[in-house]
Design a protein that fits this description.
This protein has about 240 residues and is α/β, with parallel strands linked by helices. It is built from 10 helices and 9 strands. The two termini are about 35 Å apart.
């Protein structure tokens, strides 16, 4: 049996203005591909931040056994126009391992090159990031996240703003990383892609956990059937 990397027990999330989700109970094992689905304001992005330790849970417990988690947040307009080379951005994923060193080690530089090769962007290494297409930019940010990761990636709506072909290309790339042993946790609004690619689904709605289980079980659940029929229209 795969070992647990994240365990959430009776977790509640919220802000000073109130609770956005509660009663979250689920476990992510090494090699899982978990998609987090839910309606507007259900707390999906807040949950990702809590899993990273960037936002405290209001109640319950989140136990992280995984180390070196790579994070790909939703991209902002400012980030899309960042005036740095692809190689510089990918290498910056190693900053968390640098401590107070003002330089990258050879191993860190090699790690960046390997991840650019892995994601098919080594030929873009000298290009300016802001000159790239949306799909290319997301590959760069994925390579950066992989430099920070040991075994897990947390992705928040990674295909938002991409054209349909670029979306499929990115989904396929993420699925390949998962097959290669990287644990994936992804917030998504695309329920059909979620049940196609993910091994497990967590569905949050109405401030409660509506479903957690395998993608196959989700297809047969009342929540899954309703959401699939609606096309996931009630997304953030």
């Amino acid at each position: 049996m795969n070992s647990a990397e994240i365990v959430c027990e009776r977790v509640s999330l919220g802000y000073e203005t109130g609770t956005v989700a509660e009663g979250l109970d689920f476990t992510v094992h090494r090699g899982d591909y978990l998609c987090i689905l839910g309606e507007n304001g259900s707390g999906k992005s807040t949950l990702v931040k809590a899993l990273l330790g960037l936002h405290p849970a209001k109640g319950g417990s989140i136990t992280r056994y995984a180390t070196g988690i790579g994070y790909l947040p939703q991209q902002t307009v400012v980030q899309k126009d960042f005036p740095a080379s692809v190689r510089e951005i990918v290498r910056s994923g190693c900053l968390g391992k640098c401590g107070f060193r003002p330089f990258y080690t050879k191993a860190e530089r090699d790690r960046a090159e390997q991840n650019m090769e892995r994601l098919g962007i080594i030929g873009l290494a000298r290009r300016c990031y802001r000159e790239l297409s949306g799909g290319q930019q997301q590959r760069v940010l994925l390579a950066r996240a992989l430099c920070a990761a040991d075994s897990m990636l947390l992705l928040d709506e990674p295909v938002t703003g991409l054209d349909p072909k670029a979306q499929i290309d990115l989904y396929e790339l993420i699925a390949k990383l998962n097959r290669d042993g990287v644990t994936i946790i992804m917030v998504s609004h695309d329920v059909h892609a979620a049940v196609r690619y993910a091994s497990h689904i967590l569905h949050i709605g109405g401030q409660t956990q509506r479903f957690f289980g395998t993608a196959a079980e989700y297809r047969e659940s009342e929540t899954g059937r309703a959401f699939l029929a609606a096309g996931g229209a009630e997304h953030e």
